[in-house]
């Protein structure tokens, strides 16, 4: 199959699979109560999730909008062919994308992200994407939080049983009817004058801790 055909067909096919799979999951959300007042008040949030836990996230955003009053997010996607697939995939769940990455279009993407957040919108970023290294936080999410004053929400999904794909990010895909959890960690504020290197380490640690918490919840 040609690259163009994959770009055209993969997003629609994946969305159908994820919707069908999501409908079977036994899922609970942890940390939602702390965010509901922010959602009701329209206070912008910056969600961060590791690349290896992202495939179910567009469906989970739709689920939270329907069940708990969460808001739509704008998703950062790279300008590569993979980014185009991601953009078309999340659009199937009614989500907009902002295109750019550290290697291509990063400055323009940051400006769009800042504008979106300052206008009151929520955004979602994958801070070890698009190509890794796995679970090493790139500083863009910290810069965005410092420039806008919006807090970062560490986000993680876990399921059991599930399969980890043989990809650089070890993408986690739940089996049908898996016990699943979505964990929304405590918000992290980054003051404009913060030590950015220290903030990067803090957010990376929080995101790893949130992911480990999710894994433990489905294992127990």
What is this entry, summarized?
It contains seven helices and seven strands, in the order αβαβαβαβαβαββα. It has 220 residues and is α/β, with parallel strands linked by helices.
CATH first level = Alpha Beta
Largest sheet: 7 strands, mixed
E-strand count: 7
Number of helices: 7
CATH 2nd-level architecture: 3-Layer(aba) Sandwich
The sequence of SSEs as H and E is HEHEHEHEHEHEEH
CA(first)-CA(last) distance: 42 Å
Give Rg in angstroms: 16 Å
Write down the overall geometry. globular
Mean pLDDT: 94
State the domain count: 1
The CATH topology name reads Glycerol-3-phosphate (1)-acyltransferase
What structural class is derived from the secondary structure elements? alpha/beta
In the sheet with the most strands, the strands line up as 1-7-6-2-5-3-4
Secondary structure: helix percent = 40-55%
Please describe the structure with a list of short key phrases separated by commas or semicolons:
220 residues; alpha/beta; Glycerol-3-phosphate (1)-acyltransferase; 7 strands; 45% helix
Architecture overview:
With 220 residues, this protein is an alpha/beta fold. It has a single domain (3-219), classed as Glycerol-3-phosphate (1)-acyltransferase (3-Layer(aba) Sandwich), CATH 3.40.1130. The protein is 45% helix and 21% strand. Helix 1 packs parallel to helix 4 (81-91). It is globular. The model has no long low-confidence stretch (mean pLDDT 94).
């Amino acid at each position: 199959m040609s690259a163009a055909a994959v770009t055209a067909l993969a997003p629609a096919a994946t969305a159908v699979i994820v919707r069908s799979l999501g409908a079977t999951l036994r899922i609970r959300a942890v940390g939602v109560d702390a965010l509901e007042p922010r959602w009701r008040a329209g206070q912008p949030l910056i969600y961060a999730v590791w690349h290896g836990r992202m495939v179910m996230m567009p469906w989970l955003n739709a689920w939270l909008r329907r069940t708990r009053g969460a808001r739509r997010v704008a998703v950062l996607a790279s300008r590569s062919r993979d980014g185009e697939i991601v953009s078309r995939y999340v659009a199937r769940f009614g989500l907009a994308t902002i295109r750019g990455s550290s290697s291509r279009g990063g400055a323009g993407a940051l400006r769009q992200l800042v504008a979106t957040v300052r206008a009151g919108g929520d955004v979602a970023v994958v801070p070890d994407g698009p190509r890794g290294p796995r679970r090493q936080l790139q500083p863009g999410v910290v810069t965005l939080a410092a420039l806008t004053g919006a807090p970062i929400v560490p986000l993680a999904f876990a399921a059991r049983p599930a399969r980890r794909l043989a990809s650089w990010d070890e993408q986690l895909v739940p089996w049908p009817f898996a016990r699943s959890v979505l964990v929304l960690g405590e918000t992290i504020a980054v003051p404009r004058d913060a030590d950015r290197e220290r903030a990067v380490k803090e957010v990376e640690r929080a995101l790893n801790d949130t992911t480990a918490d999710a894994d433990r919840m489905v294992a127990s």
